[in-house]
Amino acid sequence: MFLKKIKNKLKVRAARKYLRQELAAPSNVPNKGVGVSSIGFIVDLDKFNNADSFYTVIEEFSLRPNAIKVIGYKEFYDKNSPYSTPVFSDKDLGWDAKIENSYALEFLENEYDVLVNYYNEDKLLLQLMSIKAKARLKVGFGGVDKNFNDLILNIPIDDFQTFKMELKKYLRVLNEI
């Protein structure tokens, strides 16, 4: 028990150090051009549990059916319980800020035109996923550290319809759609 706590503290310390280093380094995501053809969502399922609503963005932005990728975060989850969305948790933090979850690794392999950080609290694993994801434009909420997002929307996390309208409006302003 005692050794497990020390091990977890060392993992968290290494992850925080990794975050500081990555935030200080310039991003090297290539700018593929104008337009949105893929969107990734990192969702805090403890705060917003209707992850299926993100797939309505497909019609809103006229995207291909497989253009949306959603991954959810739960502080604690049962691996035997069925979830409609791939899930990762705090248990998936490995050494040297590595994420040891096959769903998360699959999500991180893809490049996104827009990455939506759909959470409003600073949680280490959510920030780690956000910093490791390759995206041209990162969108998030105001309650999170401003260094993680390029575009910040100050709306309630529960109001998905307003979020969708605001996202579309700002992507149009940025000539992305």
Spell out the key features of this protein.
177 residues, alpha/beta, Rossmann fold, 6-stranded parallel beta sheet, 5 helices, 6 strands, 33% helix, 19% strand
Explain what the structure shows.
- The chain is an alpha/beta fold and 177 residues long.
- The chain has a single domain (2-173), classed as Rossmann fold (3-Layer(aba) Sandwich), CATH 3.40.50.
- The protein has helices at residues 2-24, 57-61, 102-109, 124-132, 160-173, and strands at 39-44, 68-73, 87-88, 111-118, 134-141, 151-153.
- Helix 1 (2-24) crosses helix 4.
- The longest helix is centred in the N-terminal third of the chain and has 23 residues, at 2-24.
Short description:
This protein is an alpha/beta fold and 177 residues long.
Q: Strand order across the biggest sheet?
A: 3-2-1-4-5-6
Tell me the distance between the termini. 52 Å
CATH topology grouping:
Rossmann fold
The appropriate CATH architecture is: 3-Layer(aba) Sandwich
Helix/strand order? HEHEEHEHEEH
The low-confidence runs, each spanning 5 or more residues with pLDDT under 50, are none
SS-based class: alpha/beta
Estimate nothing, just give the exact number of structural domains: 1
Strand content: 15-25%
Helix content: 25-40%
Mean pLDDT across the residues is 87
Main sheet summary: 6 strands, parallel
Number of strands: 6
CATH class: Alpha Beta
Computed over alpha carbons, the radius of gyration is 16 Å
